[in-house]
């Protein structure tokens, strides 16, 4: 039973009790009865209002509670959405970073390849010539190998240079150092061939006197004394004031 109904029932019982027959000495007169009823009615109305106020407050509290629960649910949902978006953002940031690294690597690779094939200026025997970067590096590597005494690798590098760049500005020098390395390896026939190609293709080669002297030495070491003598005499005749001519004069007596 609801509190308001209970209170009303109690009031009714009280009023009936007041109106029921009783001994003369215990009965209220009409005035007192009306006062009691009015008093009870007033108390009933006050309690009814208080109950209504309490119910209204309870309803408001329930609404606030429901609102807070909904708000908490919304907050939690927003937190989950933020976490999801943060995860997506991190994934996108990582993907962007990887893409940027790949682009930088690609650009660097392309730049490196372009530098390898783009022409550059180099000095060859006092002349400014145009060569490719990779071409120059291969030639310099071959010379480093020669200076280190690694003649076999030097020959291989120089032959690779001539094969890849047959019209290279380094061709004459490549033939000279190839013949010199072959002589050091005691491959005299190969050395003779390299020097002969050099002198035939590049008669104005700045080191022609040295190349001809090396040719004479290789011919002598191979046992062809007649050819060696003729070559050394040719050195003296064509380059009489050169150091190569003086070395040829020193070697000729051993060939007679």
UniProtKB/TrEMBL annotation:
<feature type="domain" description="YbgF trimerisation">
    <location>
        <begin position="54"/>
        <end position="122"/>
    </location>
</feature>
<keyword id="KW-0131">Cell cycle</keyword>
<dbReference type="InterPro" id="IPR019734">
    <property type="entry name" value="TPR_rpt"/>
</dbReference>
<keyword id="KW-0132">Cell division</keyword>
<dbReference type="GO" id="GO:0043093">
    <property type="term" value="P:FtsZ-dependent cytokinesis"/>
</dbReference>
<keyword id="KW-0574">Periplasm</keyword>
<dbReference type="Pfam" id="PF13432">
    <property type="entry name" value="TPR_16"/>
</dbReference>
<dbReference type="InterPro" id="IPR034706">
    <property type="entry name" value="CpoB"/>
</dbReference>
<dbReference type="InterPro" id="IPR032519">
    <property type="entry name" value="YbgF_tri"/>
</dbReference>
<feature type="coiled-coil region">
    <location>
        <begin position="44"/>
        <end position="102"/>
    </location>
</feature>
<comment type="function">
    <text>Mediates coordination of peptidoglycan synthesis and outer membrane constriction during cell division.</text>
</comment>
<dbReference type="InterPro" id="IPR011990">
    <property type="entry name" value="TPR-like_helical_dom_sf"/>
</dbReference>
<keyword id="KW-0732">Signal</keyword>
<dbReference type="InterPro" id="IPR014162">
    <property type="entry name" value="CpoB_C"/>
</dbReference>
<feature type="signal peptide">
    <location>
        <begin position="1"/>
        <end position="26"/>
    </location>
</feature>
<dbReference type="Pfam" id="PF13174">
    <property type="entry name" value="TPR_6"/>
</dbReference>
<dbReference type="Pfam" id="PF16331">
    <property type="entry name" value="TolA_bind_tri"/>
</dbReference>
<dbReference type="GO" id="GO:0030288">
    <property type="term" value="C:outer membrane-bounded periplasmic space"/>
</dbReference>
<comment type="similarity">
    <text>Belongs to the CpoB family.</text>
</comment>
<dbReference type="GO" id="GO:0070206">
    <property type="term" value="P:protein trimerization"/>
</dbReference>
<keyword id="KW-0175">Coiled coil</keyword>
<protein>
    <recommendedName>
        <fullName>Cell division coordinator CpoB</fullName>
    </recommendedName>
</protein>
């Amino acid at each position: 039973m609801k509190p308001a109904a209970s209170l009303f029932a109690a009031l009714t019982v009280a009023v009936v009790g007041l109106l029921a027959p009783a001994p003369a000495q215990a009965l209220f007169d009409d005035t007192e009865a009306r006062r009691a009823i009015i008093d009870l009615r007033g108390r009933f109305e006050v309690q009814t209002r208080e109950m209504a106020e309490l119910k209204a407050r309870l309803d408001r509290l329930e609404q606030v509670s429901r609102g807070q629960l909904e708000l908490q649910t919304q907050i939690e949902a927003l937190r989950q959405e933020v976490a999801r978006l943060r995860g997506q953002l991190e994934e996108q940031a990582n993907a962007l970073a990887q893409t940027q690294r790949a682009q930088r690597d690609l650009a660097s690779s392309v730049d490196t390849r372009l530098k390898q094939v783009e022409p550059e200026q180099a000095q060859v025997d006092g002349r400014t010539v145009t060569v490719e970067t990779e071409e120059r590096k291969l030639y310099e590597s071959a010379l480093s190998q020669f200076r280190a005494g690694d003649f076999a690798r030097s020959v291989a590098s120089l032959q690779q240079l001539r094969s890849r760049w047959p019209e290279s500005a380094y061709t004459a020098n490549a033939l000279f150092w190839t013949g010199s390395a072959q002589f050091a390896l005691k491959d005299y026939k190969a050395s003779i061939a390299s020097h002969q190609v050099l002198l035939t293709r590049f008669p104005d080669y700045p080191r022609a006197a040295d190349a001809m002297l090396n040719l004479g030495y290789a011919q002598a070491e191979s046992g062809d004394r007649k050819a060696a003598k003729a070559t050394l005499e040719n050195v003296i005749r064509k380059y009489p004031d050169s150091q190569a001519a003086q070395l040829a004069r020193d070697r000729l007596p051993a060939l007679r």
